[in-house]
């Protein structure tokens, strides 16, 4: 980055710092995003002046500040690239695109309900909805035709696997494939979210933040939708009408599909609100999860013979570990990377230690069961997931310990977590594509 661009960044930073509502740590994070964007744009062929202007424009919530900055500094280049398209004017067409895609997703689900069996439509629901979410980000991030076509081919291939494999009923490898397919689809959405630049660590972490915030918004929309649906149903019942069929076949599934797009748009438009909630949520759930893990460890160890542990319990334990890793990842995404180690970092370290203890017990129980009864598709899927989580937790323990002791920067832990994300996608692909034929689709 040249001296001219550094001067422009310094000028932009001084301007943003004059806003009392923006904390210094937020300015640091925005500047880091800005510099990463400039570097990426220069790498694809833009000159530094143009890259700087485009990067400022992409900061989203800072657009309004960019408009004022452009007006105060009557620079020809600023006026050409920034002041020409007001942020307020862009929001209306974007919401129109989201609304259209949400309606299309809802209609796709409704058509699926009409033409597919109940089991088939449940399995294909993510395929009917998530491509529209990927399309929204592909449109917004202006991804290349190559990236868009690659994503469509991947979705089509996944649809073929789920619907053309000769599964032996709605069980075994079929259920495993249906459970893991949304992971692959969500990763494809992440590629579109990052504008096709999935190798960028910063974009991966942004997508992690988006995922956590999207879950919050979708949950809020779902709660509100359930309340409204319940009141509407009660009103119809009071009128002597039976709304069950309409609710089950029209309102609930179509509303759930459309809410996927609306929640994504809310995250994009209102990030500053949820970003303030993220640190609070991680601080609430981390100590509760530590207590839960300690109780599970005591229960597993105190239960006696590990070979007698119920199979369903072992699968639930894996899901708990997934929740723990997700909590660690979201805590990393919500943390100020420049802040020194504090009590919450030590609590996170304790969380990882407890998770490793539970993971070790679950792993031993799985190995004992496999030695006694042999391999099945469910056991392979559970064992593979356990090992994937174990590697993540072990490295997280090492890096978290080094950070708390002041021997490694927090950035190392962040790099590990974002760099490990493709491993989850790879394992999901193995379960969906390779596991069914290995076990004869049973």
Automatic annotation (TrEMBL):
The keyword ATP-binding does not apply. Coiled coil: none annotated. The chain crosses the membrane at residues 95-115, 121-139, 146-167, 173-194, 215-238, 250-268, 280-301, 313-335, 347-368, 380-397, 418-439. Keywords: Membrane, Transmembrane, Transmembrane helix. It comes from the Bacteria. NCBIfam families: perm_prefix_1. This is Permease prefix domain 1-containing protein. The lineage of its organism: Bacteria, Bacillati, Actinomycetota, Actinomycetes, Propionibacteriales.
């Amino acid at each position: 980055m040249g001296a001219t661009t550094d001067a422009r960044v310094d000028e932009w930073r001084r301007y943003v710092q004059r806003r009392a509502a923006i904390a210094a740590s937020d300015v640091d994070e925005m500047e880091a995003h800005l510099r990463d964007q400039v570097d990426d744009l220069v790498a694809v062929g833009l000159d530094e002046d143009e890259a700087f202007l485009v990067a400022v424009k992409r900061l989203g919530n800072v657009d309004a500040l960019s408009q004022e900055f452009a007006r105060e500094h009557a620079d020809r280049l600023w006026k050409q690239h920034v002041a020409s398209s007001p942020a307020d004017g862009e929001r209306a067409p974007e919401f129109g695109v989201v609304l259209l895609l949400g309606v299309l997703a809802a209609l796709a689900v409704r058509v699926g309900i009409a033409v597919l069996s109940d089991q088939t439509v449940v399995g294909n629901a993510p395929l009917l909805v998530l491509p529209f979410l990927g399309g929204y980000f592909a449109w917004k991030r202006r991804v290349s035709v190559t990236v868009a076509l690659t994503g469509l081919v991947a979705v089509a291939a996944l649809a073929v696997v789920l619907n053309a494999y000769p599964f032996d009923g709605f069980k075994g490898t079929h259920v495993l494939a249906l459970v893991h397919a949304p992971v692959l689809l969500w990763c494809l959405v992440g590629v579109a979210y990052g504008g096709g630049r999935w190798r960028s660590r910063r974009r991966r972490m942004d997508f992690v933040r988006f995922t956590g915030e999207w879950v919050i918004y979708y949950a809020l929309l779902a709660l509100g939708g359930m309340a409204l649906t319940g009141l509407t149903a009660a009103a119809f019942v009071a009128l002597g009408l039976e709304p069950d069929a309409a609710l089950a076949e029209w309102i609930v599934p179509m509303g759930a599909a459309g809410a996927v797009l609306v929640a994504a748009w809310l995250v994009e438009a209102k990030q500053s609100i949820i970003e303030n909630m993220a640190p609070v949520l991680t601080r609430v759930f981390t100590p509760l999860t530590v207590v839960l893990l300690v109780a599970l460890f005591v229960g597993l160890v105190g239960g006696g013979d590990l070979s007698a542990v119920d199979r369903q319990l072992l699968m639930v334990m894996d899901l708990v570990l997934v929740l723990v890793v997700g909590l660690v990842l979201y805590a990393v995404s919500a943390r100020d990377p420049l802040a020194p180690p504090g009590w919450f970092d030590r609590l996170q370290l304790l969380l990882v230690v407890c998770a490793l203890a539970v993971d070790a017990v679950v792993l031993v129980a799985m190995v004992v069961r496999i030695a006694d009864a042999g391999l099945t598709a469910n056991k392979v899927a559970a064992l593979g997931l356990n090992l994937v989580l174990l590697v993540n937790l072990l490295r997280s323990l090492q890096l978290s310990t080094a950070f708390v002791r002041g021997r490694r920067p927090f950035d190392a832990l962040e790099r590990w977590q974002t760099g490990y994300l493709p491993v989850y996608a790879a394992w999901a692909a193995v379960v969906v594509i390779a596991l069914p034929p290995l076990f004869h689709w049973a």
